[in-house]
Design brief:
Blueprint lengths: L15 E6 L2 E6 L23 E7 L5 H4 L24 E5 L10 H10 L5 E2 L9 E2 L5 H9 L8 E4 L10 H4 L2 E2 L5 E2 L5 H9 L11 H18 L4 H23 L21 H17 L5 E5 L30 H5 L4 H26 L2 E2 L2 E2 L4 E7 L15 E3 L12 E3 L6 H12 L11 E2 L2 E2 L12
């Protein structure tokens, strides 16, 4: 980190670019600039710590455990087939295996969602015509953390989703990842343009048919940006230009994505459905995540890639793309239904879908890693808890869920953990408590989850394998 020149100023983290257009005031949040940091680049200019971010990230229907679990332990482990897409961010990922869900035993996907993402046994609900229904028994971990680190941002937390082929008739447990409490679900927004507007609605003037949104908004803040650029270093000048351009380029990309299909009542196969652009939508959502974190618009995000027990279609996996293909085409069938068929070809399809899914997770991590911040990048200052609602879909198994904790948590998480396999089936709640303590150490939280009868989610023992 270079020392500032005499004419360069220190900026508050809340500095905005401001302007006026279409008769209204506009403001645009900024990414972390060198001028917002101390002379060593390791803290904010006022001496406060660079903020830490937290995410939960879920995909539906589990994995093929044999494809997932690496053969070796420690930081020098070889990536398994399912984890190969994470090669570029391997050093940021702690792969955690042989953990047990001690709130499980009643209902597969419901057990997993509650156990991993809240630590509280779920509450069963009347199911009506559905096979089962439930709601979370307590707040989800993202909301526990949001109460600690989300109070100073424009949005305390944001909920995102990608696939619209998810269950809506089995209670809130499977509908969304984020819950303030048993009766306070926070539903995921799956439209990228809606999220974009939520983040930047104070920057977007009404569209001028003659010039369009881009020209109007750019002109509105250009004068303020020019004044600011005279007071900051060359790196910050370049970062300001890149930020302005990226805000508009992202909207252009979002508008180029065709509308995705409507939400079905149940995830059964649909005749000739339009293909959900899962990969493309995920890439846009990942850019929005990075922008929201970089501009400190929020520090807490929940992200449902595909729904637990959901019927997402992996249209990019026709028979020709599956090793050992036998002519069956599951590329437009319910992912949940296929996951329950314990036959070689069907499980090969599930294994390939997990590779696609991990490629999409890697897109997020690589986007965060590529976004500089302070003496590192956004991934250095983030903690991301990734899992699925079951270990293997066909058995609803309660051990060896796919689990990764990614990022360095602002120094709160150990580096180079690699693959850690629990020797004694530790509780998954221990992972959640470690995440809480890593991201919000000053909160002094010493327990996580709760117990109900034989369902034991409460823990006071954070996972020592990942906690710095």
């Amino acid at each position: 980190m270079r020392r500032r020149l005499p004419h360069e100023l220190k900026l508050d983290r809340r500095t905005l670019l401001r302007g006026a257009a279409a008769g209204g005031a506009l403001s645009l949040a900024l990414p972390m600039l060198d001028a917002m940091l101390d002379d060593n680049g390791v803290r904010l200019a006022d001496g406060a710590a660079i903020p830490t971010r937290f995410m939960t990230w879920v995909f539906g229907n589990g994995c093929v455990v044999a494809d997932w679990v690496p053969a070796q332990q420690g930081p020098k482990y070889a990536l398994s087939r399912a984890l190969e897409p994470l090669a570029k961010v391997k050093g940021y990922c702690a792969v955690l295996t042989n953990f047990r869900n001690y709130v499980a035993g009643r209902r597969g996907h419901h057990d997993g969602m509650a156990g991993i993402f809240s630590g509280h046994p779920f509450i069963q609900l009347p199911s009506g015509s559905a096979p089962y229904a439930s709601k979370f028994g307590g707040p989800s971990i993202d909301q526990v953390i949001a109460d600690q680190i989300g109070t100073d941002t424009y949005h305390k937390s944001i909920q995102l989703g990608v696939s619209k082929l998810h269950l809506i008739d089995q209670g809130h447990t499977l509908q969304t990842l984020s819950h303030r409490g048993p009766d306070q679900p926070l539903f995921a927004e799956r439209d990228a343009l809606t999220i974009y507007n939520k983040l930047f609605d104070s920057f977007m003037p009404p569209d001028d048919p003659a010039q369009g949104v881009r020209a109007g908004a750019l002109d509105a803040v250009l004068a303020d940006a020019a004044r600011l650029k005279k007071r900051v270093g060359k790196t910050d000048q370049q970062r300001l230009d890149a930020h302005l351009e990226s805000v508009f380029q992202l909207k252009k990309q979002i508008l180029a994505i065709p509308p995705s299909c409507a939400i079905p009542q149940k995830p059964e196969p649909i005749d000739n459905p339009p293909d959900e652009p899962l990969v493309e939508l995920n890439e846009l959502m990942c850019q929005l995540v990075a922008m929201a974190f970089s501009c400190d618009l929020t520090r807490v995000i929940s992200y449902m890639f595909t729904g637990p027990s959901g019927g997402a279609h992996f249209h990019m996996l026709p028979p020709a793309a599956i090793e050992g293909q036998d002519g069956k085409d599951y590329s437009h069938d319910s992912h949940h239904n296929v996951s329950h068929i314990n036959l070689p070809y069907e499980q090969a399809f599930i294994g390939s879908s997990v590779v696609v899914t991990m490629s999409c997770f890697a897109t997020l991590l690589e986007q965060l890693m590529a976004t500089p911040e302070g003496d590192g990048n956004l991934l250095d200052h983030s903690c991301i808890l990734m899992s699925s609602g079951v270990a293997e879909g066909w058995s609803h198994s309660e051990v060896d869920y796919p689990l990764i904790v990614a990022g360095h948590g602002g120094g709160g998480l150990k580096k180079d953990v690699g693959h850690y396999r629990s020797p004694n089936e530790e509780s998954m709640s221990n992972i959640g408590l470690a995440c809480i303590q890593a991201v919000a150490p000053e909160a002094g939280i010493t327990e996580h989850g709760s117990d109900e009868g034989s369902y034991k989610g409460r823990t006071t023992t954070p996972c020592s394998a990942i906690l710095a």
